[in-house]
Design goal:
Radius of gyration: 18 Å
Shape: globular
Strand content: 35-45%
Number of strands: 11
Largest sheet: 11 strands, mixed, barrel
Oligomer: single chain
Strand order of the largest sheet: 1-2-3-4-5-6-7-8-9-10-11
Number of domains: 2
Distance between the termini: 38 Å
């Protein structure tokens, strides 16, 4: 009986592994982005949320999940807990512990690349939303409200 269970678990793992690898490669090739209208897109191009001009971050269902306050802090809309903050230079973002999460790199067009602390491009944001680029952190880290 133990052998059947082990075989089934290995079989399920083998079936699921390719789809997990494809999902990871899609996100690597097409990082998350915030377009000119404030739509937050995942690595596959699906809209997963929005960022308003007043820096309110909402999931795809319109639920408020976070906002950027007047001091550049990313705040959880439900708990009021500070999740991170913008650096004084306006191009770096730190988590709540003060550790670097990512930096903003201006491009020649109207967009900015978002680069993590290891130098890997993790997203792209329209220039008009770079003050809210930390919204991508909410979606990548799964801070959306569960129903």
């Amino acid at each position: 009986m133990k052998t059947k269970s082990l075989f089934f678990a290995l079989f399920a793992l083998l079936l699921g592994a390719p789809s997990l690898l494809l999902a990871q490669s899609a996100n690597y090739k097409n990082p998350m982005s915030i377009n000119a209208s404030g739509q937050v897109k995942d690595g596959t191009g699906a809209t997963v949320g929005t960022v308003s001009k007043d820096r309110m971050i909402m999931d795809a269902k319109g639920q408020k999940i976070a906002f950027v306050d007047g001091q550049g802090n990313l705040v959880d809309a439900k708990t009021g807990k500070k999740m991170g903050r913008m650096g004084k230079d306006g191009k770096t973002y730190m988590d709540a512990n003060g550790d670097l999460m990512f930096t903003i790199k201006d491009n020649a067009d109207e967009t900015c690349d978002i680069v993590d602390a290891n130098g890997k491009k993790i997203g792209n944001v329209h220039d008009s939303y770079k003050g809210s680029a930390c919204a991508l952190h909410c979606f990548q880290a799964g801070h959306t409200h569960k129903q």
